[in-house]
Every structure is written in structure tokens, then in C-alpha cells.
Amino acid sequence: MASGNLLYAQSGGVTAVINATASGVIGEARARKVKVLAARNGILGALREELIDTSKESAAAIRGLAHTPGGAFGSCRYKLKSLEADRARYERLLDVLRAHDVRWFLYNGGNDSADTAHKVSQLAAEFDYPLTCIGVPKTIDNDLAVTDCCPGFGSAAKYTAVSVREAALDVAAMAETSTKVFVYEAMGRHAGWLAAAAGLAGEGPDDAPHLILFPERPYDEADFLARVRKVVDRVGYCVVVASEGIQTADGRFVADAGGGKDSFGHTQLGGVASYLAGKVKDELGLKVHWTLPDYLQRSARHIASKTDLDQALAVGKAAVRLALAGRNATMPVIRRTADKPYRWKIDSAPLEQVANHEKKMPAGFLRRDGYGITAAARRYLEPLIRGEAYPPYRNGIPAYVTLKNAPVKKKLPAWKG
Amino acid sequence: MASGNLLYAQSGGVTAVINATASGVIGEARARKVKVLAARNGILGALREELIDTSKESAAAIRGLAHTPGGAFGSCRYKLKSLEADRARYERLLDVLRAHDVRWFLYNGGNDSADTAHKVSQLAAEFDYPLTCIGVPKTIDNDLAVTDCCPGFGSAAKYTAVSVREAALDVAAMAETSTKVFVYEAMGRHAGWLAAAAGLAGEGPDDAPHLILFPERPYDEADFLARVRKVVDRVGYCVVVASEGIQTADGRFVADAGGGKDSFGHTQLGGVASYLAGKVKDELGLKVHWTLPDYLQRSARHIASKTDLDQALAVGKAAVRLALAGRNATMPVIRRTADKPYRWKIDSAPLEQVANHEKKMPAGFLRRDGYGITAAARRYLEPLIRGEAYPPYRNGIPAYVTLKNAPVKKKLPAWKG
User: Which of B115, B141, B143, B148 is catalytic?
Assistant: First the structure.
């Protein structure tokens, strides 16, 4: 066993299960007698030399991470550019790694993080510093290449399907004298994966959600409103799920039409659901309610998918195994081996294949009319939300873990980033 | 045992557990060999003679109601006025009850429903028709008089506390480089019960939610924004929970300031969280996210409170016992007999004491500065969200029950309401 430390960092938007991946990483490393440092607030902490000594945490706390949402060490939105453009930053990163005897660097994030890890590995080779860089997949957007699905997505998808089903039962009960249309706004700026997951809330043509709006299809207002009217006439009410990223045929985001500035010049924060609800009210004269779950959908550990949790833990453990085996510039990925019954295993892929690619939803997942999902989409999505993985509760609230996050003593001059 | 049927109707906004009350009603009535009819869409179904024969439902379906949110028979927003103003409607109601040999009428709702049940009982006496009217409590607003708490509130409160806790962990992880302020909009037009429940998400002064805005206290924008700034400076981020009903000192709803019409005359649906988020962005220049859970908070059976579920079932069963005992014009209520450990029992109260009263939050529940809850509020609220009562799942989605809702043959001429 080589001596040295392992550095783990979380990047980008957090999820209900990214801490489960951290739990997998730290648990596996402990079993192999490797010390894990964590960067505070993602790559920024690595640049600032703000490191956390995870060996100060109890075994119970590390196990507890697996049922705790958010990012236990802090995350960040901070993108390193190309080696050429950002060379000073990459070199500083290498300095910090070297100063703390970091031999394995695990970067837990999306496309950008895979790219960053890849570049760090190249620079280390150039400087002849013995470092193994591993990307660890994470994103509720489900848009990473190669892997069959992304840890974090399944839980957000389950939240979405369950919430839409529940709200639909409410609307169904109220529709006779009150709310007839309900609009749910799902995250997904570029791809409609979460909006598609809402489709699992129902099965028959009269089941909610009755209409799903995907960023993959242009938003046609007249057609949309006509369909809402038809569904209300036929079913008595209409549940709409709209992806935040829907655009008109000429490429304008509908979210930008809602909101904006009011007549006093004050910011009006709206979004897609707010906009669509306004249209339904104005154009169809129907009573409408709408919801913007926002962060609730990606932090809802209380309704996490067991499949997702298992995969989040597994990629964390696999990342440590890949790291210690010296599999530089790779990422553990999830490979689906069967649909029914669903089976998966952990495989690995070169970071190069993952970095800066974006996985779109296959065209075959969208119904021909563009307002719903196909059987193929169901076959893909359904196993990902399967299984419940409840956190423990104390006094009615999930007993989420707070770490000590003990700082590692700095050894370098302050970073002037 | 007197012969005759029992009529059950659901009224007003539905909850995560109103069907549990229905399950209690039907289960208890079946055990006592009494047939239960249900009105389709609440009191409207009774007026229209649109009745449902619940004896066509299996025992499993009736048990399943206890884990199914929404209103299984449909609800309505339809208020009967005074006996004088709406006498024809009350008489029609009595005609329908008589035509279907209804000897017990159970009306499951809030203040208005208690009032309606009370008036129906008066009229029945006047016409010498042997009817026992029982009000059955239900509302997420927790504003019914006499009862210690209202079935439906505890589950919405648990949803609120859990969601705020989870979102806060997300914001805490992102705050260094991204979202610094998060605003959560809670239901509660007249009283801040649900906003108060959010207070259970944290304990210490630096725990989220950092600021709660109650309708009981005037909204002072300058003071609010100054406090947001202070919390961000001290903690690094700020989680705000705002009741939809907050008003400025001169009595204007803040929700009406957000939204309204845009400069093209189109409806802008906003609300309180949208408005506050806009102010935080414009005035403080901080990155902000916000959520409007809307119906999700009252239909989230997946995160129902066990205490709430038990009480919803219990008031349903008690209502049948009161009815069969001829306790006309009463309501089963929840009486708290101890705080620690929490104990409660079912008692009864005259509908007159419940009807048209609104229970406000005690002044002692609000912190002196008006932005948080006191220890007394915690003592009251905490038992109400305690315990988990998960529904069964099928393929990753709760296995909610759909009833057959077989119609009862009409006997009367159509109602020209």
C-alpha cells in the first residue's frame, strides 16, 4: 500500500445522496487504512487550502452521511477553465495536493468536474507528481455521458413522481368547485429528465400528469392551451408538469417571459409554472394553482430512492478502489445489465469520454405528440425510483448528521485567487 | 339499533389524512352494521343527490383510504349561508337525506362545515325529522376552536419542518459561491400555524429557519431586509419562511404586491416568496432561491405524521359513535392531556362552540422580536409531527387507493341550485 492521503471534494448543485457517496468514499478508505481529507466548499477549498480532516469523525457520523442530504463539506459553483487559461490555478491545486501528501484526488460532480479532474491528472503527469485522479458521478440532471444514470437523479425523480401523484389527488378532489389546473415546475434547464420522471405518477391517458412540457420540444402556446382545455373538458381537471428549460420555437426561454421587471422596475421572480398558470387563468379563465419545488426536489432525502442511494454509495466505494488501483483519469459508472428485473453493476470509463459531453434524452422517450413519455422511457426510469430508504427520525424530524469538519493546519501561503 | 343510513361528506381544502378520517368513519360504521353513503364533491353532492354507495368498496380499499391523500369522494368550496338566506338549499338537503333514509349526517370540514351541520340539525328538529348531525374536524390551517389541534395540520406541519430542514442543508452547502438566501412560502392566510411549524426544523439561533414571517405581525420591509443581511453576515446564508398571509402595517397583503399585472396587462402570479426573493435580490444584491410548495404541503401523505394519522382515524371513529349515540350537533375534538410524554384523547364539543370561531396562534408562541417561535410553541407543535406513517409502495410510487365510487340511484327530481 502506497502511503499518502486521499482528497475528496463535492462540486456543483448538491443532491439528496451526494453525502452517501461521501460516506462510501470515507468508509471504503478507512477499511483500507487510507486517510481522507475533504475540501471545504469543493475545489475552492482545495485552492484555498481549506481542508477538513475526516478522521476526526466517528464511524456513526460517517454512516449517518448516507442518510443526510446537502453537501456535508460544502460544494461550489466554480469552473476551472482550460489548462492554458487557468494554468496558475491548476498549479496551485497541485501545490496544495503535494503539501498535504495527497496521492488520490476524488472529484464528485458533473461534466465540468470530470473535465477538471482530467486536467489535473494531466498536469500531475507533466510535473511527475504521483497522483491518481478519479471523477465520481453526481447530478440530478442525469446528463452525464457513459453512465446509465447519475446518482442523485433517481431520488429527485422519485420526489417528482410522488409529489405530482399526491398533488393530482388533491386537485381531483377540488376540481368541481375550485382548482381545475395545476402546474408543477421541474428542474432541468437543458434536458427534461425530471419532467419525464413525473410521467411515472400515472399510467392511463386520464391519469396525471396529463401534459408534460419538455425542453426537447418547442413550446407552442396555442397548442398547449387548447390541450389544457380539452383535458379539463374530458377529465374534469388537468395536471401539467413543465420543465424549467422549455423554449419557444425561436429559442426564447419561457422562464424569461414569466417574471422580469414589473412596471415599477422591481424584479418579478416568476419562472415557467408561474407564467403558464397566468396564461391558463387569462386565456382559459380556469382556476389554477402552481408549484415551484425548487431545492426541495433535490434535497428530499426523506423520499430518496433506494436504487439511487445504493448506486451513490457504490460509486463512492468504487472510486476509492479505482484510485488505490492507480486507475488514473477514470470515473466509476453505472452499467445496466437488465431491465426486468432491473440489474446494474459498477464499471469504469475514461474521464475523457465523460468530460464536457451532455447526455440528452433519447427521442424515443418522448411521445409523438411531445406531451408525455413512452413505454421505453418508463422502462428506463421506473427502476431508478424503486425502493424506499428512509432516514432515521428524532422527534418527528430526520436525524440528519452534522460533521465536526475539523480543519487541517495550513502549510502554504494564502492563495490570492 | 335504529335502521337507516349514514351520510358522510368532505368539505373544503383536502389534506393528507382526511381520507383516513373517512376510513375511520366507514370502518366503524361497518363494524356496527350501518351503511355509509358518501356525497360526491361534498355538500354539493348531497344537494344534487349525487351519492356514492360505499358498501361496494372492499375492506382493503377502505383500509387503504387511511394511507391515501386527497379527498376520495371529492370535496368542494361551497358555503351555505344562514338558514334564512339559504332556506331552500337547507330544505333540499333535508329532502335528499329523507329520500335516502339518512339518519346520521357526518360533515368533515372546518368552521363553515361545523356551522352548516349545526344549521341542518336545527332544521331537522323543526321538521321533526330524526337526524343526528355530527361535525368532523379537518383543516391544515389548525384554526378550529375547542379542539387542541386539527387533523390534517400535523402532517402539513411535518412536511414543512422536514422540507425546510432539507432545503437548508442544500443552501448551506451552496452558499459560499451561489445561493445565500432561500425563501419558503407556507400556507396560512389568517394564522401562521404552518410557518410556526417550520421553526421545528432547527433549534439554535444559527439553525434554519433563521427568520419566520407571521401574519400575526406586520411585515416591515426595512427591518426584514436588515435582518436577512445580518444573518447572512453571521451564518453565511439565510433561510426565510414566510406565511402567505403576511401583511404590512396598513393591512395590505404582501402577496398582492408580488404578482399582479405586468406592463402588458398579463397576469403575473407571484405570491409572498416570489416578492420577498425579488426584494432580497434587488435591495441586498444576494443570490436567492425560493419555493412555493402549494398543494404539495397538504397532500404529502408520504411524509404524514403518525400522530396526525392516528387522530384523523380516531375522530372518524368517534364521529360514528357520537352519531349512533344520538349526540346531535356535536363534534369529536382532540384534548391534550399531557405534553411530555404527549397524551391525547377524544372528547366532544357542541358544534355551536366550534362554528364560525377561528383559533389564532397564542401571542406567547411568537418570539418577542416576531421572527421565530418560543419554547411554548415547540412544546405544543412538536408532538403533532411526531411519528412516521409511511404508505405502502408499488414500483417506487405510493400505492394510493382509487375507489369505485358506485353511484346511488337518484330518487328525486334534479336540483335547480
Answer: B141
How many angstroms away from the CA of A291 is the closest CA of chain B?
5
- Told to judge if B141 belongs to the known catalytic residues of this protein, a careful annotator would answer yes
A408 has a chain B CB within 8 A of its CB: no
B212 — contact with chain A (CB < 8 Å)? no
pTM, whole model, 2 decimals? 0.97
The phi, psi pair for B377, rounded to 5°, reads -65, -45
**Is the ipTM value over 0.85, yes or no?**
yes
Task: Tell me which residues of chain B, numbers 370 to 399, contact chain A at a CB-CB cutoff of 8 Å.
Answer: 382, 385-388, 390, 393, 395-398
Residues of A in contact with B16 (CB under 8 A): 166
Contact across the interface for A385 and B397, Cβ inside 8 Å? yes
Distances (CA, A) of B377 to B342, B367, B383: 14, 9, 11
Mutate which: A174, A254, A276, vs B, most B CBs within 10 A: A174
Q: Do B294 and A167 touch (CB under 8 A)?
A: yes
User: Which domains are delineated in chain B?
Assistant: 5-139+305-357+390-398 (3.40.50.450), 153-299 (3.40.50.460)
Residues of B in contact with A299 (CB under 8 A): 166-167, 169-170
Give the gap in angstroms from C-alpha A206 to the nearest C-alpha of chain B: 13
Number of H helices, E strands in chain A: 14, 15
Each residue's pLDDT tens digit, A81-130: 888 899 999 999 999 999 999 999 999 999 889 999 999 998 888 889 99
Helical spans, DSSP H, in B253-395 = 254-257, 272-279, 296-299, 306-324, 351-354, 375-381
Residues 6+ apart with CB under 8 A from B325: none
- What Å distances lie between residue B315 and A321, B138, B322, CA to CA? 56, 9, 10
CA distance B9 to B51: 10
3-state secondary structure of A342: strand
Q: Do A294 and B291 touch (CB under 8 A)?
A: yes
- As to burial, measured by CB atoms within 10 angstroms (0-12 exposed, 13-18 middle, 19+ buried), residue A249 is exposed
Q: Between residues 70 and 109 of chain A, which touch chain B (CB distance below 8 Å)?
A: 70-72, 74-78
Contacts of A100 (CB under 8 A, 6+ apart): A5, A7, A37, A51, A408, A411
Q: Given an 8 Å threshold on Cβ–Cβ distance, is A270 in contact with B269?
A: yes
Radius of gyration, CA atoms only, chain B: 23
Sign of CA dihedral A51, A77, A241, A142: negative
What is the length of chain B? 417
Distance CA B99, CA B95 (A): 6
The grid cell for A355 is 468530460
What are A152-177's pLDDT values in tens digits? 999 999 999 999 999 999 999 999 99
> What one-character DSSP code corresponds to residue B12?
S
Rounded mean pLDDT for each run of 10 residues along chain B, 417 residues in total: 88 97 98 98 96 98 98 94 90 96 97 91 90 97 96 98 98 96 94 97 95 97 98 98 95 78 61 94 96 98 98 98 97 96 97 90 96 98 98 97 98 91
CA distances from B387 to A399, B155, B383, B398 (A): 13, 10, 9, 18
Catalytic residue among A141, A148, A308, A310: A141
